[in-house]
Amino acid sequence: MKDIVYMDHAATTRMRPEAVEAMLPYFTEEYGNASALYSLGQQAKQALEEARSVLAKTICAGSGEIYFTAGGSESDNWAIRGAAEACAGKGRHIITTKIEHHAVLHTCNDLEKQGYDVTYLDVDKDGLVSVDDVAKAIREDTVLISVMFANNEIGTIEPIRQIGRLAREKGILFHTDAVQAYGHLPIDVEEMKIDLLSASGHKFGGPKGVGFLYIRKGVKIRSLIRGGAQERNRRAGTENLPGIVGMAKAAELAVAEMEERSRREAKLRDHMIERLENEIPYVRLNGHRTQRLANNVNMSFQFVEGESMLILLDSKKICASSGSACTSGSLDPSHVLLAIGLPHEIAHGSLRLTLGEETTMEQADYTVDCVKEIVARLRAMSPLYEDFLKENKKMQRYG
Amino acid sequence: MYSEKVMDHFQNPRNVGELEDPSGVGTVGNAKCGDIMRMYLDIDEQGVIQKATFKTFGCGAAVATSSMATELVKGKTVEEALEVTNRAVKEALDGLPPVKVHCSLLAEEAIHAALWDYAQKAGITIPGLQPPVEDIEELEPEEE
User: Fold this and answer.
1) Nearest CA in chain A to B63
2) For residue B143, what pLDDT is reported?
3) Is B38 on the interface with A (CB under 8 A)?
4) What is the pLDDT of residue A399?
5) Which residues lie closer than 8 Å to B47 by C-beta, 6 or more apart?
6) Is the predicted pLDDT of residue B141 greater than 60, yes or no?
7) How far apart are CA B81 and CA B139, in angstroms?
8) How far apart are alpha carbons A252 and A320 in whole angstroms?
9) What class is the B4-132 domain?
10) Which of B1, B11, B18, B33 is catalytic?
11) Reduced to 3 states, what is the DSSP secondary structure of residue A88?
12) Does A345 touch chain B if contact means CB atoms closer than 8 Å?
């Protein structure tokens, strides 16, 4: 296989050519500042509002409820800090989970240092948050619940609708980090009772460095970026118009083709999981088997380490990712894999393969073949595997 | 991120495997941290290391430092092998990224652990050799 086999769509995606095409005029022709009075500026303003309207429709929101940001991390930071600070008079307790993205977790850690109280909910072995646990964690002073729509590492889809309903009944703001879900799963903010939703452009064929935050009409959150009056006085800074136009185009296409694409991806996903489970001993699927993003394969291979797998996969032109410590720059493996109860050594041997619309069956099979060969090669030099075979004792199997 | 030498020793590791009846075997590191190195040594009557092999569970740098460490101690006397420090391993690999320096420590410690095992079995004392430590995190890398 000559070309790159890109199996890391959860990290970022290749831009849709249509989205690139849509962006181009806004660099050199329609380059006006959307705040300017002259027609060049007003044309920019119009493009901005058209993009806003396209995005709003994809989640059944109103145009006035979409606020452009510099990406998923800014959206998460803004939603959580902004809501916490706006509600501080009412209470200072936040409920979230142990498997959130660091953009959520680190913001919550920061708030704790400033006197807020945060409950980090456990998840079960499949990565599911229990709605009961959320209900039990609610206190008099709870002002915000933040639970991700779908997990970026293990692909588990959370019970957002139920949590949204619960939060609304209790009069608590509900934020969901939908960075991995938006453009991949149907989202209806009205029906799901979502107050705040984060999305990022580059996860569905749009450009990097642009995203949005949905803020339900009437919800008050403090602004993070201060300055000009852009975004109805809530998020300052000249709008990244090419990025916004590109994101809207990509979102339009992603949502229109979602059903068909998901069906295709899920078929490839299940094919890969089935082959990996059947053809390699001592493996474990991480994440929920069915309540799972259509493009996510995450497996742990006992007795081998993730970074080694990634380097060897790279030499076969396969781009993948791992939750091993060596890929995170710390000594601990992924917090998500630890939260679902994996022992460190199993978490170190995890491999995430995330598919996209361009992924073919041929690529899926090629990847499985390479993983198989690489795992065998690494096991042959693993002292853990040697001990396992020698002692012939029943080591605990996680599968 | 890795030098060409590290990539070479990771992709084509030298001296992988076990030795039958080794003079000394040492295992260091732990699976929790993501690295385990095991080194096997064959030492002749003159105290010269005739063969050195390894098995490693760990990242690319862990495999590469194991491979380089076995290359460096081969043919050396026990005393000379003690001089193979983490710095020597690192330099022989044209450097390691800062977060991976602990892998070179692990390699040095694996050599020492195997030599310790050899000394115990042979009933000799190797001057300057300390018993292997349980936790590699207790070790400080040698200053540049």
Assistant:
1) A308
2) 45
3) yes
4) 41
5) B77, B78, B79
6) no
7) 19
8) 27
9) alpha beta
10) B33
11) coil
12) yes
Neighbouring CB atoms inside 10 A of B109's CB total: 24
Cα gap A211→A203, rounded to integer Å:
10
User: B96 to chain A, minimum CA–CA distance in Å?
Assistant: 13
Tokens of residue A171, six digits: 């009069």
Which residue is catalytic, options B49, B103, B105, B113? B103
The residue of B9, B59, B67, B70 whose CB has the most chain A CBs within 10 angstroms, and thus the best one to mutate to test that interface, is B59
Measured in residues, chain B has a length of 144
Helix (H) or strand (E) holding A267: helix A258-279
- What is the distance between the alpha carbons of residues A153 and A123, in angstroms, rounded to a whole number? 14
Q: Which helix (H) or strand (E) holds A287?
A: none
**Interchain CB contact of A323 with B (< 8 Å):** no
Which B-chain residues 6-35 have CB contacts (< 8 A) with chain A? Answer: 7, 10-11, 13, 16-18, 27, 31-35
Residue entry with tokens 């070179």: B104
Res B114 pLDDT > 80: yes
CB A207 within 8 A of CB A56: no
Domain ranges across chain B? 4-132
Pair A266, A294: CB distance under 8 Å: yes
Give the pair of three-digit tokens for residue B65.
Answer: 């430092």
pLDDT of residue B46: 94
Is A303 part of the contact surface with chain B (CB cutoff 8 Å)?
A: yes
* Chain mean position to CA B16: 12
Q: How far apart are CA A36 and CA A259, in angstroms?
A: 40
Cβ-Cβ contacts under 8 Å, A348 against chain B = 31, 34
pLDDT tens string, chain A, 399 residues long: the values are 569 999 999 999 999 999 999 999 999 999 999 999 999 999 999 999 999 999 999 999 999 999 999 999 999 999 999 999 999 999 999 999 999 999 999 999 999 999 999 999 999 999 999 999 999 999 999 999 999 999 999 999 999 999 999 999 999 999 999 999 999 999 999 999 999 999 999 999 999 999 999 999 999 999 999 999 999 999 999 999 999 999 999 999 999 999 999 999 999 999 999 999 999 999 999 999 999 999 999 999 999 999 999 999 999 999 999 988 666 556 678 999 999 999 998 999 999 999 999 999 999 999 999 999 999 999 999 999 999 998 865 555 544
pLDDT at B144 over 50: no
Segment holding B25, helix H or strand E: strand B24-30
The SS3 assignment for B57 reads: strand
What values do phi and psi take at B96, rounded to 5?
A: -135, 150
Q: Rg of chain A over CA atoms, in angstroms?
A: 22
pTM for this predicted structure:
0.93
Going from the C-alpha of A51 to that of each of A35, A47, B21, the distances in angstroms are: 16, 6, 72
CA distances from A154 to A49, A291, A380, A394 (A): 35, 11, 27, 27
CA distance A310 to chain B (A): 9
